Amino acid sequence: LIRKLYNNNEVKKLFSYCVWIIVSKDYKANELLQFLLKGCGLSESTKGKDISEDDQKSKVQKFLEKKKYLIVLDDIWEPEVWAEVECLFPDNNKGSAVLITSRNDGVANYIGSKSYYPPLLDEDESWKLFCKKVFKGGECPSVLESIGRLMTEKCR
């Protein structure tokens, strides 16, 4: 759902800067910071220089302060991640947005935001998604269909 929103051209027109960052379980603050620097076009200005992490954060903040931005932080596992990176995203009163996805209710509770729980896929939707991902959009070989359907049933 968030991916559809993020990839929508009408939505992208509303923002001068958009970035999707996969955070994941193996989150490293410095990697996220480097990704933002690169996405902001600031990594060249810091390349090969001994610039402190605080100065790097400041560069990102100053860049975003002037922009109406949309940033997706995908798959945050722990509330502490948001605590570490929240300061990077200034509330600049320009209509900017930071969207967060997480499988952990504690993240949304920590942030103080409302959670959205997408509905489960029905049997047919699950099967179509399974075939699309496993068989690259093609048909499932008949010899694998019974085990494939059993797998999709277990995943629902």
UniProtKB/TrEMBL annotation:
Pfam families, alphabetized: NB-ARC (PF00931)
GO term, biological process aspect, one? defense response
Which is an annotated GO molecular function term of this record?
ADP binding
Question: NB-ARC domain: which residues?
Answer: 1-137
- Which UniProt keyword terms apply here? Plant defense
- Give the protein name, as stated in the record: Resistance protein
Q: Supply the source organism for this entry.
A: Arachis cardenasii
